[in-house]
Amino acid sequence: MAESTLRESIVAPTTAPAPASRGARVLQFVADRGIVVFTVGLIVFAIVFVNGFASVSNVSDVFYRAAPIGIVALGMTFVVISANYLDLSVVAQVATAAVIFIGVSNQAGIIAAVLVAIVVALVYGLVNGIAVGYFRANAVIVTLATTFIGLGILRWLSGGSIFFGPDGGIVQSLGQAKVGPVPLSAIVLIAMAVILGFVLQKTTFGFAIRSYGSNKAAARLAGVQTGRLVVGAFIITSLSAMVAGFVLAAFSNTAVSSMSDGYDFRALAAIIIGGTSVFGGRGSVLRTLLGVVFVSVLTNILVLSGMGFGLQQVAIGALIVIAVSVDALARKLVKS
Amino acid sequence: MVHSTQNQPAAIIADRISKRFGGAVAVDGVSLSVAPGEIHAVVGENGAGKSTLMRILAGVIPADQGEIRVGTELLSGGPRAALAAGVALVHQELSLVPDMSVAENILLGSTPTAAGFVRRAPMRRIAQAALDEIGIEVDLDEPIARLSVSVRQFVEIARAVARKPRVLILDEPTATLTPAETDHLLQMLERLAAAGMAIIYISHRIPEVFRLCTVVTVLRDGKVIQSGPVAETTPREVISAMVGRELARDLAGEHTSRQPGEVVLKATGIRAPRVNGVDLEIRSGQIVGLGGLVGAGRTELVRAIIGADPRIAGTVTIASRGRSRQIRDYQVAVRSGVGYVPEERRSDGLALTMSVVDNVALPNRAALSTAGVLRRRRITDYVERLADAVGLRPPKIQRDAGQFSGGNQQKIVIAKWLGRQPALMVLDEPTRGVDVGAKAEIHRLIRGLAAEGAAVLFVSSDLPELLDLADLIHVVRDGTIVGSLTREQADERSVMSLASGEKAVVA
Amino acid sequence: MPDLTRLRAVLARRTEGRAVVLLIAVLVAAVAFEPVVFSSFQVVLGRVALIGLVALGLTAVILLGELDLSVASTLALSGVVMASIPDPVLGVVAALATGLVVGLINSFFVVVVGINSFIATLGMLFALRGAAFVLSGEEPVRLTNIDAGIAFGAPLIGPLTPRVLLFFLVFAALQVFLSRTRIGREFYAVGGNRQAAIDVGIPVRRRLVLGFLISGVVASLAGVINTLERTAADPTAGSTVLLASFAAAIIGGVLLNGGRGTVLGTLIGALALSILQVVLTLSGVQVDIQDIFVGSILLIAIISDPTRLRASVSRLRDSLSRSRTRAPA
Which end of chain B is more exposed for a tag (fewer CB within 10 A), N or C? Predict the structure, then answer.
């Protein structure tokens, strides 16, 4: 009978969130789903108005260029979603993997090269992950330090020289391989997106990372082993950077320590433009893929329209700020 | 209604102040008058509206109704206006800058300058004078980060005193102080009052009030219940006025007496910051409540027991399903069958931007997956079942946790653990900020857990709740258990007098 | 003895400790291996000024609890702006104005729009670098008045070049500003406890704007100096400056979360890093291996925060022991 009085007293209505104004809702929609609309819109725009965009050779060129940076961005999404800003050391990691891919396979064969590269990637992931996850050090500074160390070691060991794969070698054939009209690098990009998307969305590990990024204290109090989680996020980033290094090396059949300069912030730019929050929790691998496609298509349009490197950079910078400003303004409006 | 001990005009007069937050009335038509030289205690249970009232007096938040006069001036505008009028508030949370010196902190916001440069000599002089006035010796150049919490509390008071206020408001200033430091503080306040300052002193601690204050005002549910000279009342009377409900135990919580089972939790010699040696034992099916004042160290105690915060000393064993395990850190505790509902559900309990499904699934993800891959169907079934069990309203489990009311958010936090059949459930202030209906339901859930054989440990500052739920109440003061009351022994008065240090009433 | 305890207390308060330890270690190593370094101090000073100038401005922003990733791009853009204007004086003024405008834009996004400074200045990192490329036509821009540039590189007082003098001038100005003026001290309050700063009525937004203006102008000053010394402005200039200046500030004891640190610390950090590099160079160590040293020192500096080290190690140990005990089960 105590139960029945309870039931009655519970019928009191719960406080629902106040409905937001129309402007706020539009902004909220743009902030939430905008990247899909914009990417599709941009592609349609390019097909209709930009001369030379809708050709097989141009589209495969877009993918060629998008693949390495895109793969890095896909992996780095894990670090960003775990609320650890970014991994600056991908610059060193991509170049190291590329140099190993060509340099070591010239000496000892491609299997040895891949094995060495995997070991190196694991070391990067462990060092970054332990320093950030267990020593609770700021990820920006930790990965800045490992960038210095990694690039230093790479240039020292490689002597800063350019490595060439042999003509007709396996690396070159991988770089030129196509499945039908689709270049292998594009397939690798999509495959990585599918795999990493699966890991982030469907596995307990990815679930724990998203929860951790959303609220660190709550995740810990739910029994999540936060240190291991962060190490895992950095290892995934490192392995992705390794794959990106392979793709980059195969693309030109050369490798040099400076070939991935700027990958750190460019990858982050694609992630942010895709709509993943640098405060952690919100975002997805698919969003990053869209961000990568968007930036690549836009860059391609600018190139086809004869715009230089400078304007491309200005456009990327503006996009970052616009993407995040829309989000910030939407939240401000919803609050008020 | 308005009392003053001297025949001087009042230093501050609050006239019929009201304040609501959302639907809840925090302060309801409160009038208050404090004369120069008067130390005026404002007491009440947690949530009685004391802190809100003080923040209104200091201009930190505006009142919905009523007016405040300082001397003859009507007070309007924000905290700076209040400060200029001579009202200084010493916050409950510390508001010092860690890497600035003591002197700089005391004069923050009113630093003496010449052509933009800090004038160090006058700054040090004013700061030193303020420290002298409250009788504290501390190096003026020491950064705050290097001082102990209690010294910081005194620096905070020195900052208020340095502004030479006519009215000084202190909100629970002794919560972090040792008895000796408390003595010092009380003497200092007497000196300041003797020099003509009007002091408003908020405290739970009844002995302090009777030692220090000249007038006491009791708030309950945002209203003034009693107000008058301390000399004309007794601690007993004040506690009754604070607690109010003469019919203490409502019959709603009909109690089926259970036979406590095996010992589930055994904690011995627990020490941690603000926890000074606690032994505790809880049996299967038993509900143990921790009573005491805010700042007594209850939250710290439960967190140290389950390893959520590091312990300095002590061992904890949890026995469940025939296995007994030492608890060294929190992850082991969770794996041994501990469920924990933290005090701050919004910051520690829930990921507000994630769905109910995600929040509830998180601690159970291993059981809801196959080879590390989440099973969506299994998860939604599981969460639906639990949402139903806790009575989530509305039962929309795909919504973000942040979109639910406080009571329903708390149900989500409980649901996170409910499906695991926890051996030990630990709840910290389980119904704070929760509406009446949800509160009753949460109580039902807690009883249900115990009925199924879980050991339950909960912290509550809500006396009726404590008395209603607990089979055994341990009262905590200054980081130790100062008394234990069985269901039969416990009533509001016995708990409050143990908690506030007035031992005489113990039954 | 009270003097000694007093001294100890004063020392314990300083945040520059690790930077000083590193500096002493580097100096000892220098005495032992390459004493030549002490007679070639203009090389050292030149190097300090190169790494350190941007770091000084950055320190002001970090103290506020914010970040400015756009400094290196600001450096490049203001150099190009300067070289594009034939009149040298006008060029310098325009370059410094560029830095001012950049600071205003950064603070607009942070203060008015309310986006995180990390992202806002990340956008500016790209946009300004791009603007430098557009303005320069993707080629280095030669200075019209090359003589002015050559004169600028010559020692002015004793062995001190104008670059070194300007560096110390900026250092002195910022040191005085942040340790002696009321507004400067309020930077610490804004970065250390923003709510408290608001409560006591410090105009937090204006302090933030000022911080971004300082880092913008100092970065553009570095761009001016670079351009004068090289007699040309390269749109790719300063690409390594961002990371190096962060390293100097962090080693100097500046807390990335704000509120703690000094420009003196940044100076010592820059000094230690520069001497280290010069010593290594003189010892015939390649630049690449020098980077390994710098990175390792930075990594050690960030994980050796004594208040956190013990907890960190025990966390790691717990985690390892858990996996060990679970393995056989």
Answer: N
Number of domains in chain C: 1
Put simply, whether A100 touches C (Cβ < 8 Å) is no
∠ CA B286-B290-B293, rounded to 5° = 165
C-alpha distances out from residue C72 to B239, B312, B357, C51, Å: 65, 47, 45, 11
Q: Which tokens sit at C107?
A: 């603070």
Phi/psi of residue A109, each to 5°?
Answer: 95, 160
Using a CB-CB distance cutoff of 8 angstroms, which residues of chain C are in contact with residue B118? Answer: 180-182, 185
Reading chain C (329 residues) residue by residue, the pLDDT tens digits are 456 777 777 777 777 877 888 889 888 888 888 777 777 777 788 778 877 899 999 999 999 999 999 999 999 999 999 999 988 889 999 999 999 999 999 999 999 988 889 889 989 999 999 999 999 988 888 887 777 777 777 777 777 788 888 999 999 999 999 999 999 999 999 999 998 888 888 899 999 999 999 999 999 999 998 888 888 888 888 777 787 888 899 889 898 889 999 999 999 999 988 888 888 888 888 888 888 988 898 888 888 765 566 666 766 776 666 554 443 33
User: Which residue in A7, A198, A202, A214 has the most chain B C-beta atoms within 10 A of its own C-beta, making it the best mutation to test that interface?
Assistant: A214
Domain membership of residue C147 as a residue range: 41-265
Instruction: Record the tokens describing residue A245, joined without a space.
Output: 């290094």
Please name the member of B117, B328, B331 whose beta carbon is closest to the beta carbon of C180.
B117
**Cα–Cα distance between B449 and B443 in angstroms, integer?**
10
Say if C22 falls within a structural domain.
no
* Residue C6 lies inside a defined structural domain of this protein: no
Dihedral pair phi/psi, residue B477, rounded to 5°? -140, 140
Q: Across the interface, do C200 and B110 touch by the CB < 8 Å criterion?
A: yes
Q: Give exposure, A175-185, as e/b (b: 16+ Cβ within 10 Å).
A: beeeeeeebbb
Alpha-carbon gap: C52 to the closest alpha carbon of chain B (Å): 23
The pTM (predicted TM-score) of the whole model is 0.85
Residue C124 lies in a domain: yes
Residues of C (131-190) whose Cβ lies below 8 Å from B: 180-183, 185, 188-189
In order, the DSSP letters of B33-94 are EE-TT-EEEEE-STTSSHHHHHHHHTTSS--SEEEEEETTEEP-SSHHHHHHHTEEEE-SS-
